[in-house]
Write a structure and sequence with these properties.
By secondary structure, this protein is an alpha/beta fold. It has helices at 2-14, 24-34, 41-54, 79-86, 90-103, 117-128, 142-154, 167-174, 192-202, 221-232, and strands spanning 59-61, 76-78, 107-111, 134-139, 160-164, 183-186, 211-215, 238-241, 245-249, 257-260. The radius of gyration is 18 Å and the shape is globular. The protein starts with a helix and ends with a strand. The structure holds S-adenosylmethionine (SAM). The site of S-adenosylmethionine has 20 residues, from helix 6.
Length: 263
Amino acid sequence: MLFQIKSYLKFLWNSKNEHAVHSPFVFHLVTKCFYDTKSKPEYQVLKNYRNSLLENTNTIDVTDFGAGSKVFKSNTRQIAKIAKTAGISQKRADLLFRIVNYFQPSTILEIGTSLGLATSALALGARSVGTEAKITTLEGCPETANQCQLQLQNFNIKNVELVISEFSEYFKTINHQPSTINLIYFDGNHSKSATLEYFELLLPTVSNETVWIFDDIHWSLDMEEAWEIIKKHPKVTVTIDTFQWGIVFFRKEQLKEHFVIRV
Ligand SMILES: C[S@@+](CC[C@H](N)C(=O)[O-])C[C@H]1O[C@@H](n2cnc3c(N)ncnc32)[C@H](O)[C@@H]1O
């Protein structure tokens, strides 16, 4: 906790708003997407999706994958508690919706589904621009995945393929024939080694337009080290640190530049 407070103070000290951004690409993203304060009907759907989970007092038997899941001791967990502690916040879900809406990616991968709080934002973002992008989301715990599947059905969200698999096993299968993935949301195993392993395994899926979003880059010293290594990677050009997320671009026309932006 103390680590995160120190890290946040450092972030506040270094962070800027749109006025200090000279890159037109990043300026446009910040002003038209990050700081878009207009209300959207989809925000209410995302809120309803969350509330119905928060009201669900049923329990499920969870297969625990370790890092990123420090909160629980028992493997029998209440759905409401999982939704409260393991998922994306409402504010971030709305932002994720806007990011998908802004970039209009045609293929999306989410690493770490849980109950689908972020999956629903990705899916509604894709639906709202009429592209009906295909969203693949990965979850290793079968009972959590089943619960998510039910929830997606209840909300009539159909453009999602939920794959029950350990992450590395799934990446091995796609790496036989890598095809482009336009947006990846990394929200599974928040450790340095796993983050860097997934980064390397998924590099063959990158195109010039690809956007990668890493959750919890300041969660631990370990994750901050992983973020610094990612920023330095020769294929990475622009990065944006929003404290909660590290957003990565591979656009060759951009100079290598790192932004720290308050969202
Ligand atoms: C932080 S939660 C995802 C939250 C979700 N993106 C959201 O915003 O609601 C991470 C999920 O990844 C799963 N997970 C963690 N490590 C995994 C692994 N190595 N393979 C498969 N699933 C894993 C966990 O079971 C958990 O449900």
